[in-house]
């Protein structure tokens, strides 16, 4: 019997435990290590305005974990694990700090990234210290609050835990933007949407992907556009993969698009090269970018 260490999720291997459960235990303990080990990083996916020239709206930070033995582990797998074993607080703090550090670094080098969006879990919003931490992080990197967007799911938004509602309002008071991720997949309550200080709606990629074949998806998307417009929210369509999907969204005056059609999430250095090619003279002052040197 091997005990896997951990404050909140000590488990024991035993004969009854199946392989899947054993793998899970191993993964939990690996994730704990990864947080202190630099195995985690953020990739960044550009988000663009739909209009002429498609100016850059911002980038979404997406966590990546490369484990020396398990290889690449998907966030779809390790985020729920982190939530279950009490690591999501530390994880959220890491993601927030790393995204702010990177944005400040880009700006110090004249790379114009208007904002970065960080995904947070419902549990991160339950933390009543969230807004204070966010404010401290912005301050320490010299970033204005509107440089940061925090993405939350409907589940987080509807969480009745007092801390969540407090955090949402406190973060909004700082001037940080709030975005409702995966819109349409959860328990969307339109009355909540109206009462909470959301800035942005992210149309879930499942609707965008069904768009070509499903009239229902198309009418749902139109409805979301109307809701967004009526509430003064920026609608971001995620998972745009084809030109016909883009054309549909563009024709319906979707504000912002994000998806493989434009770019995949990429490491910071690769994003810099992408920006350089896509938006040629991006540096001001140094002249280096303008001269293409
Ligand atoms: P999400 O926030 O809804 O992110 C969008 C997901 O769609 C990302 O998957 C992205 O890589 C993927 N994607 C983007 N464009 C396309 C496209 O054109 N086609 C398709 N098929 N997919 C596209 P990823 O990176 O695997 O992340 C999955 C989920 O994990 C995220 O969904 C988010 O809920 C969660 N996640 C990722 N990073 C973090 C993090 O730092 N903290 C927390 N709490 N959750 C995170
Ligand atoms: Mg997201
Ligand atoms: Mg999403
Ligand atoms: Mg998602």
From TrEMBL:
<protein>
    <recommendedName>
        <fullName>Bifunctional diguanylate cyclase/phosphodiesterase</fullName>
    </recommendedName>
</protein>
<feature type="domain" description="EAL">
    <location>
        <begin position="24"/>
        <end position="279"/>
    </location>
</feature>
């Amino acid at each position: 019997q091997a005990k896997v260490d951990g404050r909140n999720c000590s488990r024991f291997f035993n004969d009854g435990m199946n392989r899947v459960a054993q793998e899970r235990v191993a993964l939990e303990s690996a994730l704990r290590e990864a947080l202190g080990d630099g195995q985690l990083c953020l990739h960044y996916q550009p988000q663009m305005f739909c209009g002429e020239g498609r100016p850059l709206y911002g980038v979404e930070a997406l966590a990546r974990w490369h484990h020396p033995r398990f290889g690449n582990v998907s966030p779809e797998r390790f985020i729920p694990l982190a939530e279950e074993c009490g690591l999501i607080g530390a994880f959220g703090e890491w993601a927030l700090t790393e995204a702010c550090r990177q944005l400040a670094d880009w700006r110090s080098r004249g790379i114009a990234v208007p904002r970065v969006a960080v995904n947070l879990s419902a549990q991160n919003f339950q933390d009543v210290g969230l807004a204070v931490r966010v404010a401290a992080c912005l301050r320490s990197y010299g970033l204005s609050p509107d440089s940061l967007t925090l993405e939350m799911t409907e589940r987080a938004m509807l969480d009745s835990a007092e801390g969540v509602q407090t955090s949402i309002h406190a973060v909004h008071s700082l001037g940080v933007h709030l975005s409702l991720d995966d819109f349409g997949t959860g328990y969307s309550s339109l009355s909540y949407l109206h009462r909470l200080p959301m800035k942005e709606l992210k149309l879930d990629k499942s609707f965008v992907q069904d768009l070509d074949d499903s009239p229902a998806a198309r009418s749902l998307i139109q409805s979301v556009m109307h809701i967004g417009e009526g509430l003064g929210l920026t609608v971001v369509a995620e998972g745009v993969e084809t030109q016909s999907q883009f054309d549909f969204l563009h024709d319906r005056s979707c504000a912002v698009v994000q998806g493989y059609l434009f770019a995949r999430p990429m490491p910071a250095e690769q994003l810099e090269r992408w920006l350089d090619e896509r938006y040629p003279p991006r540096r001001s002052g140094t002249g280096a970018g303008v001269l293409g040197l």
